[in-house]
Amino acid sequence: MWRKTCAPGVRAVRSLRNRLLERRGDRVLHAAARPGCGREWSSEAVRSEEDVKLKRQYLHESSLFVTRPFCNTRMDFGGSGGKEQVPRKVAELVLARPRYKNAVSTQTVSELRRHVQTLQSGVGDDDVRVVLVRSDVAGVFSAGADLKERASLPEQLQLEFTNAFRDVLQELSELPMPTVAAVDGYALGGGAEIALSCDIRIASASAVIGFPECSRGVLPGAGGCARLPHVLSPSRAKLLIFGGQPIDGREAERCGLVDCVVDSSEMLLTEARKLCSRIAENSPSAVQLAKKCLSAVERVDVGEALGLEKSFYSQTLNTKDRQEGIAAFNEKRKPVFTGQ
Fold first, then answer.
1. What is the CATH class of 2-16+60-279?
2. pTM value?
3. Among 4-18, 302-316, 317-331, whose mean pLDDT is lowest?
């Protein structure tokens, strides 16, 4: 099954990770991270302290986990246990790399792609109606790319990393169910691009969002330059990218970079989950068609947009969810949607 879903971007990430580990000439070390399996090393015996250090450097803790809808138990890919009060029908994609402030590494990209594909493959079973993207690290959403790792990469591998990161964020944005980013603390560079790839962004007032790439000699390359002008005015997008100056949550709300702001970090997750729960209560078939429609009409004129709206609306007419919605209204009860 994994082979069937292994897109070119996945192979690029795997190849990149393996080449990162090729430091010994005749003694090549390979790390395998397969779905549902722990990481295993297959190589000649580790025969030096240098090999041990290399292994520890690149096989650090898992940087993502996903909560399972319908229950309160984490699907924890980082090895730690715990309980989470997760709303029904909501999956949470959680950044959990505290030692590195959720910096995005090659491993993060690989795991993110795997989890996004898992969410994509579950479409149709009504288990997941909304995806919440958040951090498990206090004071930071994501500090951006792992620059220490980047510094160790040759130019070609740096380009492959950015391409793979851009591709997986596009896959995240194309999930059929709505995605919500809960941003607290620092969301810089690649961290801001993760939030931009979501349909809705909610932030704490203390959030710090910015695009500092130009101060590092590059530009936002995982969707920042492509998406930001469609969220803000083109000139405001240029101001944030050219100047590199971050803005707080309140200013982000004023300019439209985030959709709503809560007063404190403590309230953010509660409010984000409430929002996800409200969305999840609606007809999943209608919500997913609405997402397709809104995405399709973003860059066309009004006449063409009206034609697209007509087409998507007609697809809702013969659904069981529409019949249930009308029946529930007439019977003055809460509807029970099934996504059919």
1. alpha beta
2. 0.74
3. 4-18
